[in-house]
Design a protein that fits this description.
alpha/beta, Rossmann fold, six-stranded parallel sheet, 12 helices, 17% strand, globular
Amino acid sequence: MATLWEVIGGGDAGGIVVRTGKDTKSAATTDRLGKGSVVEQIALEGERLNYKLVKGSGPETGWVSLKIKAANLLVPKAAEPEEALGPGEGTTVEVDKDLKAKIEANAKVKKDEGALEKWIPKYKVLGGPIAGVKFRIICFHNAGSAESIYTAKTTPFYKWATETKAVEICAFDHPGRDKLLKVDKITECSKMAEEFVSVFYEKLSDGVPYIVWGHSVGTWVGFEFLTLVRKLGLPSPVAAFLMGFPAPHMPEGRRTWHKNAKMNDKQFREELKSWDRKHFEGMGAPVFDEAQWPLTYEPMIRADFTLFDSYAFNHNGMPKFTFPIHAWHFSEENYNSAEQIEMWKEWTTGAFDFQVMKGMGHLTCCYIPEQKDEYFGKVTEAMKKYTGLQ
């Protein structure tokens, strides 16, 4: 169980001093740790505490002193019971007529401006719209990536979908890349879902069955997409593949990553690497190119990270989905645990498929060819059972 501390000192000074290192002479951060804040212990050496902020104000992490002279600055705090969050009973959701009218109006605007080809840039390249289409796979990518992880021509998924001549791969891009380079970035999963549903509204309404596949934060965007679809009275998918990320109702206090908002450039680079060091010391290293990092990659990835850093779960008590959910864990993860991924089972009354993809990291599974072939190959075999297309 995590060891928690509460800040009781520093009230007169606007909080207590936070330093970047254990040494009391190391650099102090600009912000102070506010009185009343609760922190989780990372390490304790003598009377110096390395912490992670749980709630309150101040730097997300750093080193502080437990005492100043004889006065306590922080004291142990009993763990607070986590709020029970999750789905409720039943299986139906009442259509939100006002929300439906809003999305339909936005969908008309999107259609008139030809938004589909911008938000799903490979739709026509891959032959869409396919005459006699029998299935669609709607894909949501991970932070810092793009739709291309799903549309690369070398994977078992791409080969199967294109060879059927009946499956449309509909892989969305986030704003800030490719044809959406000049579109304002989106930092809320619910807002991203509204844009995606508006762009795809007509096709969600045409009766063609579909599957949703999200990886990493793409699972939370996908979850918001699926909840919005229900509220609009649109058809649900036949299955969802929600891979490599905790279920969205996991209490915020159990998130193990660090929020990027107050990080300087050096800290943010380190946080990014911590998601999958093997990837960023290998194939992902070019993102840190000194010419491209500040202009392209840093703002794009910070916006994507904010999708999960700022995510607030607002669907407590919503009925479970009735379609099967596949949620897999990648064994070499740094931040996410198998138990966190398994929490997705609480969101379906249908079948639940949990697997551990051994030897794979959070991102190497999408970028190292042999790992991607195995991962995408297993997903494809599972999808075949729903589509009936071999």
